[in-house]
UniProtKB/TrEMBL annotation:
It comes from Aureimonas altamirensis DSM 21988. GO terms for biological process: methylation. Residues 114-205 form the Methyltransferase type domain. It comes from the Bacteria. This is Predicted methyltransferase, contains TPR repeat.
């Protein structure tokens, strides 16, 4: 910590250095001091690529935002892309694509599919053989680069989950997937509304969330991921004109050796 303080004496406006000092202070239990640094970073008015606003909210020093800054999410996964599959599948026992594939096991051919937050294509690999068309959308250019190398998508787009390009908006999909994606969305209303507008007649929507406690709506966790309560998910699905035909409890992945519990939903139009 002292070395970082010394470095910041030489470069006091260094954003990443200030963020790291805040994290060191937070780890040391000095939450108020850490919050002061995060607050300064937010007030600088620059694009919040480091998630200082999220960290401030996670400490309870600011309201929980409806969603993280897109620049933060894109930057996070751009940095992670080259080691993403090794880290997630081999080290963190990531099983969401496999679990979603299991939910769809008896469905036969799946028709036109939109893979929201497609990442490197782990979900796409599981379902591409049953798709008449497979489109993917993700914020991270580096993740999309890895997905492109798999040659399983008809089209890939770099865009925010809730702001897809006109090409996507013009199509209707028989299946829309969001595998381990909504953990980076707080307020589900915009995402669910978009999904409903893109569903073909008889279409389905399958997604995962980290499990929150009943009555809590959505909450921002220390990991800077969101958890969603089952009653909140059900209410937002209903508002969007959808309903869950199946919901399963599952372990999404591991984090620091502990299971991360979540829920899988298979939905149709109400």
């Amino acid at each position: 910590m002292e070395l970082m303080r010394q470095a910041l004496e030489l470069a006091p406006r260094w954003p990443l250095g200030r963020l790291r000092l805040g994290e060191y202070l937070e780890s040391a239990g000095q939450h108020d001091a850490a919050a002061d640094i995060y607050r300064e970073l937010v007030s600088d008015g620059v694009e919040d690529v480091y998630g200082a606003g999220l960290k401030l909210a996670a400490l309870g020093h600011a309201p929980v935002p409806d969603s993280p800054p897109p620049a933060f999410v894109a930057g996070l996964f751009d940095q992670y892309a080259d080691r993403f599959e090794t880290a997630l599948v081999e080290r963190l026992s990531y099983g969401v694509p496999e679990a979603i594939e299991s939910m769809l096991a008896g469905a036969g051919l799946l028709g036109a599919i939109l893979d929201l937050g497609c990442g490197t294509g782990l979900m796409g690999e599981r379902i591409s053989a049953r798709a008449s068309r497979l489109d993917g959308l993700d914020l991270s250019d580096r993740m999309l680069s890895h997905a492109r190398q798999k040659h399983i998508y008809d089209s890939l787009y770099q865009a925010d989950l809730c702001d897809p390009p006109a090409d996507i908006r013009a199509r209707r999909y028989d299946l829309i997937t969001a595998a381990d994606v909504l953990i980076y969305v707080g307020d589900l209303a915009p995402a669910f509304g978009l999904v409903r507008s893109l569903m073909a007649a008889g279409g389905r929507f399958v997604f995962s969330v980290e499990a929150g406690s009943e009555g809590t709506g959505y909450s921002l966790q220390p990991t800077l991921r969101y958890a969603h309560a089952p009653d909140y998910v059900a209410a937002e699905l209903s508002k969007a004109g959808m309903r869950a035909v199946e919901a399963r409890k599952t372990v999404l992945r591991q984090d620091r050796g502990a299971d991360v519990h979540g829920l899988l939903y298979l939905c149709t139009a109400a």
